[in-house]
Amino acid sequence: MDQLIDKIYFRKQFLKEQSYESLFNTLRMKDSFTVDHCYNVAFYSLLLGEKLGLSPSELELLKVAALLHDIGKLAIPDPILMKPGRLTDEEFGVIRQHPAIGYELLKDLPEVKDILPIVRWHHERIDGRGYPDGLKGDEIPFLVRIVSLADAFDAMTSTRVYRSSLHVEEVRKQLITNANTQFDEQLVKLFLDIIDEQMTLRTLTLGE
Questions:
Q1: Is 48 helix (H, G, I), strand (E, B) or coil?
Q2: Of the residues 12, 73, 83, 173, which is catalytic?
Q3: 73 annotated active-site
Q4: Cα torsion angle, 18, 140, 134, 154, sign
């Protein structure tokens, strides 16, 4: 229950910078699903950041950057962004542009230098097969790796119009399978600990 209360409180927090808030509210009007996803990614990112012992300033940066990581979807046409089914290869190519678009939207705003890597690189992969820049291994900043993992976790555990959410055990398997290829291996281990803690808390709360 404490975790649920924390999450509700977290979702009620406002972004401090007016420019960020305006962009985020525009995204809210365009696509509420993406906004919910951004809240979830920020929440999971902070759980992992706290587990890692990040400083308050690092956690604040992580929060704002995670909330804005998909801001580039503002420029994705609605028929593609909200398509009730799987995307074609061409449509997916359009979706893949959103990290670079988000970077362009934010780069001229004040005090965004530390946020930009997360916005631009949250779909990069440890094995270099990500996008938009094909970064590999240590080229990917640490905070970016945190958001990438939280982003994928929420995507797998959320219901989409073309598929149901995956069971938590299937998600565990996916994370383990993709450790050290898509995701940072050490972060996966810590995140699996968080999943176990959350599942234990849920069992105790519900009396299962």
A1: helix
A2: 73
A3: yes
A4: negative
Amino acid letter at 113? K
Neighbours of 161 (CB within 10 A): 10
Mark 110-121 as b/e (b = at least 16 C-beta within 10 Å): eebeebbbbbbb
| Helical spans, DSSP H, in the chain | 2-12, 18-30, 32-51, 56-67, 78-81, 89-95, 98-106, 116-121, 142-157, 168-177, 185-206
For helices 32-51 and 142-157, angle between their N-to-C axes, nearest 10 degrees? 130
Tokens 């990438």, residue?
A: 148
| Tokens coding 120 | 């631009």
Distance CA 47, CA 43 (A): 6
Dihedral (CA of 161, 95, 181, 113) sign = negative
Environment class of 92 (CB within 10 Å of its CB; exposed 0-12, middle 13-18, buried 19+): exposed
pLDDT per residue of the chain (208 residues) written in tens, 0 to 9:
455 545 544 554 444 456 777 888 889 889 988 999 999 999 999 999 999 999 999 999 999 999 999 999 999 999 999 888 888 999 999 999 999 999 999 998 878 899 999 999 999 999 999 999 999 999 999 999 999 999 999 999 886 655 567 788 898 999 999 999 999 999 999 999 988 887 766 555 555 5
